[in-house]
Write a structure and sequence with these properties.
Structural class: alpha+beta
Largest sheet: 9 strands, mixed
Oligomer: single chain
Helix content: 25-40%
């Protein structure tokens, strides 16, 4: 019972102590200002997409579809045939050009044979005066054949050009895969309509590299740059995270249409312009799938002098930090502030690396007064 009375009395005694005494007796905590980075405050949202993909659109200029050679879920390799158009006209053009080349080759061979015969024929046995008269006749024959050979080679070159063009047209009748991946879409019901050109016949995506694409606001442009590392998570797998790196930030805002009303434009102005961005996934893909919506946190790469948020005091619209000089005396220093997170504040000017800062300044601090700190923590 006596102990209870003592505790009760003690409690009353403490209660009667002035509150100022309690403040004065609170130990002063010291931290060392060090260079570092505040935690990221930039959060983005995006969607996982394929880094490499191929869309095969219906091309009415090639004629009718003859055959779609793949199905959804098929694994395809680079160079594999995906779609084939009806090639009867292209095949006929190729065959005609091929015959023209063969005909030109035969003509050239015939002229070469005639030239060889003209130049290797024995000279006629005539008197001396007759020999001089026969020479120009033989020379004229060879010259005539050479002229025909020149024309024949030109004709052959023209025919070869037509053959190359026909070959290209024939090859275009079959559309090949440009990457190794998986077929994710096949549309066998395309038609020669005004919108036919926008119809996807086959869609192939790469299985390996994934990206995250989205849009960021104009207010984040100053804090983000290509090359910054990020982490992102998916609601599908809340206990997992992935890493990536910003690979692209558009210099131009997304065009949302310029015919918006004044009210709509004003509403859009509140949230600012949106700029497309791309993130390359650098970690193992694991369970990550195309189409996932993800939350992205950008890692801050800027360095600055950091102090605890609690060490910064404001007076007359100016920011100050109390520090200890070499004699352990308090000194109030005006500082400029940068970004902050839940614990630390960036100091952009006013402090140097390694200075001792009072993390819990009170109104009892006085300029030049010696401060006793119970401990120093980093």
């Amino acid at each position: 019972a006596a102990s209870v009375v003592v505790l009760g009395a003690g409690g009353i005694l403490l209660f009667r102590q002035p509150s100022q005494t309690a403040v004065k007796d609170e130990p002063t905590h010291i931290v060392v200002a060090k260079e570092g980075s505040v935690a990221s405050s930039v959060l983005l949202s995006g969607t996982v997409t394929a880094k490499n993909e191929q869309y095969v659109y219906f091309d009415a200029s090639k004629g009718d579809l003859d055959e779609i050679l793949v199905s959804v879920g098929d694994k395809v390799s680079e160079g594999q045939a995906l779609v084939k158009y009806s090639s009867s006209e292209a095949q006929a053009a190729y065959d005609s050009a091929s015959r023209a080349v063969a005909k030109a080759d035969r003509h050239i061979n015939e002229l070469n044979q005639a030239r060889n015969e003209a130049t290797s024929a024995p000279a006629p046995q005539l008197p001396a005066e007759g020999t001089a008269a026969q020479a120009p006749v033989s020379g004229n024959a060879v010259s005539s054949i050479d002229a025909q050979l020149g024309d024949a080679r030109d004709a052959r070159a023209d025919a070869a050009a037509q053959l190359s063009k026909a070959q290209s047209q024939l090859d275009a009748m079959t559309v090949l895969s440009t990457l190794e991946g998986t077929v994710v879409e096949v549309n066998r019901n395309v038609s020669k309509s005004p919108t036919g050109a926008s119809q996807v016949v086959v869609h192939v995506v790469s299985n390996e590299n994934l990206q995250v694409k989205g849009e960021l606001s104009e207010y984040n442009l100053a804090n983000l740059s290509v090359g910054q590392e990020v982490t992102f998570t998916s609601k599908v797998y809340q206990d997992k995270s992935w890493t990536g790196k910003i690979s692209y930030i558009s210099d131009y805002p997304k065009n949302n249409g310029e015919a918006a009303s004044t009210a709509t434009a004003a509403a859009a102005g509140n949230s600012g312009s949106k700029y497309p961005y791309t993130i390359d996934v650098t970690s193992e893909i694991g369970d990550l799938k195309q189409g996932f919506s993800v939350s992205v946190e950008v890692k801050n790469k800027s360095k600055a002098i950091l102090v605890p948020l609690t060490s910064v005091v404001m007076e007359n619209d100016k920011n100050y930090v109390w520090v200890l000089d070499e004699q352990k005396k308090a000194k109030k220093v005006e500082v400029s502030l940068g970004n902050a997170d839940a614990d630390n504040q960036e100091i952009t000017s006013g402090l140097t690396n390694g200075v001792k800062v009072i993390s819990n300044p009170t109104s009892s601090l006085e300029e030049g007064k010696e401060v006793k700190a119970d401990e120093e923590t980093n």
